[in-house]
Design goal:
Helix 1 packs across helix 12 and helix 3 runs antiparallel to helix 12. The chain is α/β, with parallel strands linked by helices and 287 residues long. The protein is globular, with a radius of gyration of 18 Å. It starts with 8 loop residues before the first strand and ends with a helix. Helices cover 45% and strands 14% of the residues. Strands 1, 2, 3, 4, 5, 6, 7 and 8 form an eight-stranded mixed sheet that branches. It contains 13 helices and eight strands.
Length: 287
């Protein structure tokens, strides 16, 4: 009798603010094809948008981003000046999911996938991984923390920790997914193959704004090195058959806080096309 091995499958979602619309297109194609994962790990926009994969809400990410992208509460310097956050916390993390475009908490909890978000601990500069079980309540604070970009967001305090954007310390958490036992991981990147991250030009401003958290500043100073090393490891893992990477063919036509709905739709369509082109390979890889 042939021996059968259980393969644990992971989905790893990079951040990138509105570049995450590319990931949304990829995820919607995979949802439409019924592709399921045992573990999903999202960072920043990968966390805020990735929760819709577990709740199986096809089209939701594109819908509310296009609808509210021009709203001053949804990513504007007006919001930053008035609230201390580029993205108004009440509007983005309460009014939208609770009233304006309902997040399906029941479906999220019913889905068996484990969903993790990555944050950065301000005191240590190290990544913190949190399993999101309901998608609402305190879990929203963890999701918000994962997407709280330095300089344009307040530090988020939750569970006795002070947190910021997970991309500072672990931008593409393939290693974490593998440590959860995932034998095969689909990695969705929001930069094209060959992209090389450069040292941040905002380190001086960060040293001033985050002077109470020197470890975060240290992590930001070496972030480009860690990111590029992680990319090298990801492509190596793909060669070994342990990862399958989906990334845009070229730089996406969106800024981090894009306000043009057509550009958002274009990034989404690019994600759909990239997933459709790899669909047969995806299905074989996850079989």
């Amino acid at each position: 009798m042939k021996e059968v091995f259980f393969v644990k499958k992971g989905l790893v979602l990079e951040g990138g603010a509105m570049r995450g619309l590319f990931s949304a297109g990829v995820m919607d194609v995979m949802l439409e094809k019924g592709l399921r994962f045992d573990c999903i790990v999202g960072v920043s926009a990968g966390a805020t948008f990735g929760c819709n994969y577990k709740s199986r809400q096809i089209g939701r990410t594109l819908r509310y981003n296009v609808k509210y992208c021009s709203d001053p509460r949804y990513g504007s310097f007006r919001s930053l000046l008035r609230t201390g956050d580029l993205y108004d916390v009440d509007f983005c993390y309460h009014q939208i999911p609770e009233k304006l475009d309902l997040f399906d908490e029941e479906a999220f909890q019913a889905d068996p996938s484990a969903f993790f978000v990555v944050c950065t601990d301000c005191e240590s500069g190290e990544p913190v991984y949190h399993q999101v079980k309901s998608g609402m309540g305190e879990d929203l604070e963890w999701i918000r923390a994962s997407a709280s970009m330095p300089l344009v967001s307040r530090v988020v305090e939750v569970a006795g920790k002070k947190l910021l954007d997970g991309g500072i310390s672990d931008s593409i958490p393939l290693k974490f997914a593998q440590e959860q036992g995932c034998d095969r991981c689909v990695v969705v990147l929001t930069q094209p193959k060959g992209y090389v991250k450069k040292k941040s030009s905002l380190l001086g401003a960060m040293r001033l704004a985050l002077r109470s958290y020197p470890k975060v500043v240290e992590a930001m100073a070496r972030r480009h090195e860690m990111y590029n090393e992680t990319l090298r490891r990801i492509w190596q893992q793909e060669e070994l058959g342990r990862a399958l990477v989906i990334c845009p063919p070229e730089a996406l036509p969106v800024s981090r806080s894009e306000k043009d709905p057509e550009k958002l739709r274009q990034a989404y369509r690019m994600g759909r096309q990239a997933a459709e082109e790899k669909l047969e390979e995806l299905e074989r890889f996850l079989a």
